[in-house]
Design brief:
Layout (H helix, E strand, L loop, with lengths): L3 H19 L1 H22 L4 H9 L6
Helix pairs in contact: 1-2
Length: about 60
């Protein structure tokens, strides 16, 4: 079973290897790609409501 701890270990190890092998900027771009991939995955799974996220950045607030 995959747990959040195992995923965190894998992500941390991947980023560490990239940093040591390719340098800071490669690490930075891989980290950004991982974040974008996580956001895309949450949108596809239906766990992230883009409409409310956009409203938050626009400064609109809701009472719900």
């Amino acid at each position: 079973m995959i747990t959040a701890t195992k995923v965190g270990i894998f992500v941390g190890a991947t980023l560490a290897v990239v940093w040591f092998a390719l340098g800071f900027w490669a690490f930075f771009f891989v980290a950004i790609a991982m974040i974008l991939g996580a956001i895309a995955g949450r949108i596809i799974d239906g766990k992230l409501d883009m409409r409310s996220l956009v409203d938050t950045f626009r400064g609109k607030r809701t009472s719900s």
